[in-house]
Each structure stands twice: as structure tokens, then as C-alpha cells.
Write a structure and sequence with these properties.
Elements (H helix, E strand, L loop, with lengths): L3 E9 L4 H12 L4 E7 L4 E7 L3 H15 L4 E3 L1
Antiparallel strand pairs: 1-3, 1-4, 2-3
Helix pairs in contact: 1-2
């Protein structure tokens, strides 16, 4: 049985709405992510993902974020 956890994270150095949309699109493609949203206005990532693989998923999410903007970091 897969347990889905919803968590929120601050994004440091998120600099534009277009980047936020690209990050959201990339994170939603990660295996184990049920749903993710990136809010430019709040500089926040909300992610619903497989709890058993959450650290692995968050590592992949950071790679996706860095692929759009190298300076942007997910604050865990």
C-alpha cells in the first residue's frame, strides 16, 4: 500500500513565475509524485508524494529545480 504524504517547503531564490511553472511541470513528472504545485508568490513548493520514497523524490525535485534555476534551493 502506498502512503501519500503532503508537505510544504520554502523555495530560496525563486526569481520568476515562468521558472516556477517549469519547476512544477518537471516535479510532477517524477515517479512517486502524485501532485506538486510551485507558488511564485509564496515561494513555496507543495508536494504530495509516496512517503516511503520521500527523500529520493525530494532529491529528484531539487535536481528539477536546479535544472531550471541553479541558484534556487528547496529548504527542507
Amino acid at each position: 500500500m502506498v502512503i501519500i504524504m503532503k508537505r510544504n517547503f520554502k523555495l530560496d531564490n525563486l526569481d520568476c513565475a515562468h521558472c516556477a511553472a517549469k519547476m512544477e511541470e518537471s516535479i510532477n513528472k517524477i515517479e512517486g509524485v502524485k501532485h506538486a504545485t510551485v507558488s511564485f508568490m509564496l515561494a513555496r513548493l507543495t508536494i504530495d508524494a509516496d512517503d516511503a520514497r520521500f527523500e529520493e523524490i525530494m532529491d529528484a525535485a531539487q535536481k528539477a529545480v536546479s535544472g531550471v534555476n541553479r541558484a534556487c534551493k528547496i529548504i527542507r
